């Protein structure tokens, strides 16, 4: 948690109060992103990664959401202390976000040029002509072929990959200092995924924006991020530089995730073994758990794990893991 | 365009409605006779070449009065749907996005208005305000407010959950601008469908009120009024009732079919469900 962090989140907690009970979606998350850095946030569906992003942007409806944090600072400002109007001015201007579903993330009734130009008109108060011109430039930057002539196209005339490019243009037009990408490639074909990821890397190089990449796909993180945070059931369970995480994963959950990546050409045809999986499900957010949240699915869990929640231990340089194995290494089973 | 005219309901409805609108427009420029011209010598005549649809008890030409009555019907449809749309959409959006208290207040008020039989309340309103065409339009229009408010609230909520709204919010666009630029265009088709159907209902309602003497006042021509006047002469001059009745049926059928056709084309999911 350095001082020069662009975004720093300390002890973020998000609860949802529903008639069925209160669910804790995010429970004490600390995150920091330096300017220009790419941070990957990895975890299964429902682990709180998207909620964290939405809370930072101020896009969670409260109620039912209850957001608390010791601090959420962005470029020296306390985000939680800002008024709704001040936060709106930051969204799209300084922190932008792109979503998972390119097929539904564009207004079907507005030409793409107008949609890309809209943040420019709102935040920079450009005239229609100036905004249109800049929108065309950005559509070129995201490599939409024949961009200028396609300003009047409607979303249904574009493929999924093209729409995601439009979404990226829309998020980047105001040159935000932080881009939050929530599963930006999940809904796309594998070949298109690679194109979109390399496009995002290029734009990042060019604009120097920091990237918070939310995904459940470790492969995406490996290609893009410099640092990785693994989340499980609303908590950070492991945090490490990307190379270190892949070489020396510590937390049994991280190891499970890494094992369940299918290896292309690794084992093929009839000899193909069953892909490794992590047994069980993420606990429901309304469950109250004593001890480690992963204990129920962990092959190494022992009595301590079920009784006491482990803190985030330092494992190595810039490497932390929330696991009792750090202090009881003898409990790690040999076969893992 | 081809999409619309490929639909039989829409095409037939459109042609019927267009005929009514054209008749109304024509009557403003020309009618065979002055619709209010009385003639003691031509009272209660049957259809003839001189008076294709006959005359009434004052010798007024029925065809001319039906044409003039079309203006009345179109006007009522336009004004009542406009009242319902403008206020209904505004209240519906407020209910959808204005927080729980606004939602409860507006929707319970709508329930209250729905709880009364429409015709009875329209009679109540016109008898308080006095019978006139303007008051009849007000009475019908007021009933349309909850119709459009409920519809708007329902579809606006669905649209608000769409990802492109989240994307717009994430780019810092203000809530009002989002409603105007992203929500409204996306709820237009259900409103258009409902508006067309309510147009038909308004024509029928105005005819009913005028028949009861609470709508358009004599000597102005109104289809409902004409039915009322024909009642006394039903035995001897049935054409006096038949032709205005046909005009009402024609117009109501036309706008209804057009609304159904619009729904088939614009909302394929609903069409399949039916």
Query: Radius of gyration of chain B over alpha carbons?
Result: 22 Å
* Shape verdict of chain A: globular
End-to-end separation of chain A in angstroms reads: 32 Å
Write down the domain tally of chain B: 1
Task: Tell me what the structure shows.
The complex is a heterodimer of chains A (336) and B (274). Chain A is built from 10 helices and 13 strands. The longest helix of chain A is centred in the middle third of the chain and has 18 residues, at 190-207. Chain A has an 8-stranded mixed beta sheet with strand order 7-8-9-3-10-11-13-12, sandwiched between helices. In chain A, strands 1, 2, 4, 5 and 6 form a 5-stranded antiparallel beta sheet that branches. Chain A is globular. Chain A has helices at 49-57, 84-90, 112-124, 128-141, 160-172, 190-207, 218-224, 242-247, 252-259, 303-307, and strands at 5-18, 21-34, 38-42, 65-68, 71-74, 77-78, 95-98, 178-182, 210-215, 227-232, 235-241, 313-316, 319-321. Chains A and B meet through helix 2, strand 7, helix 3 and helix 5 of A and helix 7 and helix 8 of B.
What structural keywords apply?
heterodimer, A: 336 residues, alpha/beta, eight-stranded mixed beta sheet, five-stranded antiparallel beta sheet, globular, B: 274 residues, mainly alpha, MetI-like fold, 11 helices
In short:
The complex is a heterodimer of chains A (336) and B (274). With 336 residues, chain A is an alpha/beta fold. Chain A has ten helices and 13 strands.
List the helices and strands and how they pair.
The complex is a heterodimer of chains A (336) and B (274).
Chain A: E1 5-18, E2 21-34, E3 38-42, H1 49-57, E4 65-68, E5 71-74, E6 77-78, H2 84-90, E7 95-98, H3 112-124, H4 128-141, H5 160-172, E8 178-182, H6 190-207, E9 210-215, H7 218-224, E10 227-232, E11 235-241, H8 242-247, H9 252-259, H10 303-307, E12 313-316, E13 319-321
Chain B: H1 2-5, H2 8-29, H3 62-97, H4 100-115, H5 118-129, H6 133-160, H7 163-170, H8 175-211, H9 223-230, H10 239-266, H11 268-273
Helix pairs in contact in B: 2-3, 2-10, 3-4, 3-6, 3-8, 3-10, 4-6, 5-6, 6-8, 7-8, 8-9, 8-10, 9-10
């Amino acid at each position: 948690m350095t001082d020069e962090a662009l975004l720093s989140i300390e002890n973020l907690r998000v609860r949802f109060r529903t008639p069925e009970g209160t669910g804790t979606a995010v429970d004490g998350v600390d995150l920091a992103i330096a300017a220009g850095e790419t941070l990957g946030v990895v975890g299964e569906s429902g682990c709180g990664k998207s909620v964290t992003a939405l809370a930072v942007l101020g896009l969670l409806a409260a109620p039912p959401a209850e957001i608390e944090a010791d601090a959420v600072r962005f470029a020296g400002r306390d985000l939680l202390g800002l008024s709704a109007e001040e936060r709106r001015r930051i969204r799209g201007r300084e922190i932008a976000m792109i979503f998972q579903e390119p097929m539904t993330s564009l207004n079907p009734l507005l030409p793409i040029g107008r949609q890309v130009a809209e943040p420019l008109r709102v935040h920079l108060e450009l005239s229609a002509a100036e905004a249109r011109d800049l929108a065309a430039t950005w559509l070129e930057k995201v490599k939409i072929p024949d961009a200028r002539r396609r300003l009047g196209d409607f979303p249904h005339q574009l493929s999924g990959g093209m729409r995601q490019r439009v979404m990226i243009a829309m998020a980047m037009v105001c040159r935000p200092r932080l881009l939050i990408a929530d599963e930006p490639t999940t809904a796309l074909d594998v070949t298109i995924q690679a194109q979109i990821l390399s496009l995002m890397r290029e734009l990042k190089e060019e604009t120097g924006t920091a990237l918070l990449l939310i995904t459940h796909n470790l492969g995406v993180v490996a290609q893009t991020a410099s640092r990785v945070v693994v989340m499980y059931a609303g908590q950070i369970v492991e945090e490490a530089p990307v190379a270190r995480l892949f070489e020396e994963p510590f937390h049994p959950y991280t190891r499970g995730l890494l094992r369940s990546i299918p290896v292309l050409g690794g084992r093929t045809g009839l000899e193909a073994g069953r892909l490794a999986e992590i047994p069980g499900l993420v606990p429901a957010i309304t469950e109250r758990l004593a001890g480690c949240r992963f204990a129920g699915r962990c092959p190494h869990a022992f009595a301590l794990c079920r009784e006491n929640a482990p803190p985030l231990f330092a494992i190595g340089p810039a490497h932390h893991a929330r696991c009792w194995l750090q202090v009881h290494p003898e409990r790690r089973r040999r076969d893992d | 365009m081809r999409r619309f005219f490929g639909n039989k309901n829409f095409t037939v409805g459109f042609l019927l409605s267009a005929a009514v609108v054209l008749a109304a427009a024509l009557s403003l420029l020309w009618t065979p006779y002055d619709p209010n011209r009385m003639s003691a010598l031509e009272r209660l005549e049957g259809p003839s070449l001189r008076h294709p649809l006959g005359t009434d008890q004052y010798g007024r030409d029925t065809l001319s009065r039906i044409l003039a009555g079309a203006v009345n019907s179109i006007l009522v449809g336009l004004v009542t749907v406009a009242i319902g749309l403008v206020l209904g959409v505004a209240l519906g959006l407020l209910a959808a996005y204005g927080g729980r208290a606004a939602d409860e207040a507006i929707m319970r008020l709508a329930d209250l208005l729905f709880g009364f039989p429409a015709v009875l309340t329209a009679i109540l309103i016109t008898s308080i305000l006095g019978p006139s065409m303007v008051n009849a339009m007000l009475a019908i229009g007021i009933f349309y407010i909850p119709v459009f408010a409920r519809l708007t609230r329902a579809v606006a909520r669905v649209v608000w959950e769409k990802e492109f709204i989240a994307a717009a919010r994430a780019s810092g666009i203000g809530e009002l601008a989002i409603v105007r630029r992203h929500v409204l265009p996306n709820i237009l088709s259900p409103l258009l469908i409902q508006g067309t159907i309510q147009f038909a209902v308004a024509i029928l309602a105005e005819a009913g009120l005028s028949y009861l003497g609470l709508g358009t006042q004599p000597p102005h021509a109104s289809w409902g009024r004409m039915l009322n006047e024909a009642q006394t002469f039903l035995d001897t001059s049935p054409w006096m009732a038949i032709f205005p009745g046909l005009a009402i049926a024609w117009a109501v059928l036309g706008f209804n079919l057009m609304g159904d056709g619009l729904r088939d084309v614009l909302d394929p999911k609903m069409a399949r469900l039916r």
